[in-house]
Amino acid sequence: MSKQYPYFISLDEAVSICNEYGIELSTETISLTNALNRVLATGVVAKVDDPGFDNSSMDGFAVLHSDTLKAPTKLSIVGVSNAGTQEQPSIEKGEALRIMTGGPMPIGADSIIPIELCNIEGDEVILQEPSKPSYVRKKGENFTQQQELFSAGTIMSPEKISLCAAAGISEVTVYKKLKIAVISTGDELKNLGDELTFGQIYESNSYGLKSLVEMYGHEATRFPYVIDDINVLRDTLDDAAKDFDCIITSGGVSMGDRDFVRIIMEQEGQIKFWRVKMRPGSPPIFGIWNGTPIFGLPGNPVSSHVVFRAIVGKWLTALTNTPDSYSKYINAILFEDIKTQPGFTTFRRVELFDKSGITYARLKGHQGSGNIAGIAQSDGLTVILPDDKGRKGDVCKILLLWVTT
Ligand code: AMP
Ligand code: MG
Known about the structure:
The chain is an alpha/beta fold. The protein has helices at residues 11-19, 158-166, 205-215, 230-243, 260-268, 301-319, 372-376, and strands at residues 7-9, 27-31, 44-45, 55-56, 60-63, 73-81, 95-99, 111-114, 118-121, 124-127, 136-137, 148-150, 171-175, 179-184, 189-190, 201-202, 219-222, 246-250, 270-276, 278-279, 285-289, 292-297, 328-334, 345-346, 349-355, 358-363, 380-382, 395-400. A hairpin with a 2-residue loop joins strand 21 and strand 22 (292-297). The chain is elongated, with a radius of gyration of 30 Å. The two termini are 48 Å apart. The mean pLDDT is 97. The structure holds adenosine monophosphate and magnesium ion (MG). Residues 184, 186, 188-189, 201, 203-206, 250-252, 254, 298-301, 370 line the site of adenosine monophosphate (AMP).
């Protein structure tokens, strides 16, 4: 039977179809303290110079370099500059000023000698070596007032948040988080805490999917799982479409008689594609339900994760113009042949190891798409493109599953 929509397409086609149904994100201004993992909607500009004044990077003495060339040299101590000293001191030729790290440089000094190279004798100091101009941190050497520090699209990391604070920026304008509904489907599902009887399993996909949504900087709500009943599913999708920007389901998208997400989308929704040439995870469906984008992910736990990363994550990052920003890749040498299929993108679960300074990837656990333990214990996923074979010894792109920086 011919389909009214793209069917069993390449991963690249799937991603580009999803991108045709992007959502315009609104923006909000938030406190810097809440900015971790948020995406800047407008660039940020420094309000001050950094450093704001010449200061010392060492505990020691501020001196005139020309006074110290014939070290050891004796100079007279004329005062002190602490971090926080508010009036700029000064020295003359033949003089030294005790200075702490961060203390303002005195007028007349151009260099620092660290305290370890000094002997103090009363109000005099003997320098054992010449002083160093490089221990002076110069005004504006890190950044200057009005300099653009970050452009729109930057994802805020702990270091970038510190830099904003150093630049006097207390608020940033970011894209608002999408509100995403995560809905699991299946008669076999039970909630954590419930007793499992024969044939039942714990509903686990929604936990990983919620975490993935959050990792990608958005907000997820886990719905109560939905039994395999088209009427219950319809009510749930209607509710979700009303209150959420996007819906992610898991389960019920394959060819079976009880795959109701696929069935309801065929009968009542707008399907934009169904089935993708990828392993694992070939059954996903994408479409629109009551005006809301819906990603129907497969129920197999590994597939749901892989499809999120390969398709949903790409869509989310395209919305903020940060393409693929949460995906970190490395190249590794395949330690063994990987099973591939011509025309398919292959995401096998691998662990990485180092031998003689070279990074290798080898299969981790059995590669069944129900084996959540396998993916949870892996370092990454192979990204073997449709035309590649994945042979032992090949250089292979690996998508790292979890990187904290
Ligand atoms: P389905 O895609 O509905 O055919 O489900 C495929 C496999 O994934 C079956 O073995 C299901 O029991 C399992 N599965 C479906 N949904 C979930 C879920 N939310 N958590 C864990 N496993 C699931
Ligand atoms: Mg099912």
